[in-house]
């Protein structure tokens, strides 16, 4: 699964907690979020530097407040899809999505991280068919094969 297809897949399944997600889908989405956060950080730091040099302390404080609001909006925008893809990723390893709650405890957070690294459970499981399963494609009637 490519970067763009993984991100679009997660966003299409914005609040879908059922089913399974491959490792590539999960990790490409995590990379996209990290890059978005990094981009917001770079723009925010540049904005704070420019406003501090040109506008003084009040302008820098206002820029910092705007930056903080943008970060909060970014986190809120990806919270639900991030939780959903994590649940689907844990489902893919054959475990209950409730393991995501383990992320709240520092010791069990390592266990949740390990689950996201594990390979898919082979074949279908209680959460659906394997997303790795070879998909058979047949042309529509009238199409040249």
* SS-based class: mainly alpha
Span between termini: 24 Å
Strand content: under 5%
Strand runs, count: 0
Which helices and strands appear, and what pairs or packs with what?
Elements: H1 3-12, H2 23-92, H3 106-117
Give a written overview of the molecule.
This protein is mostly helical and 145 residues long. The protein is built from three helices and no strands. α1 packs across α2 and α2 crosses α3.
List key phrases describing it.
145 residues; mainly alpha; 3 helices; 63% helix; elongated
Summarize the structure.
The chain is mostly helical and 145 residues long.
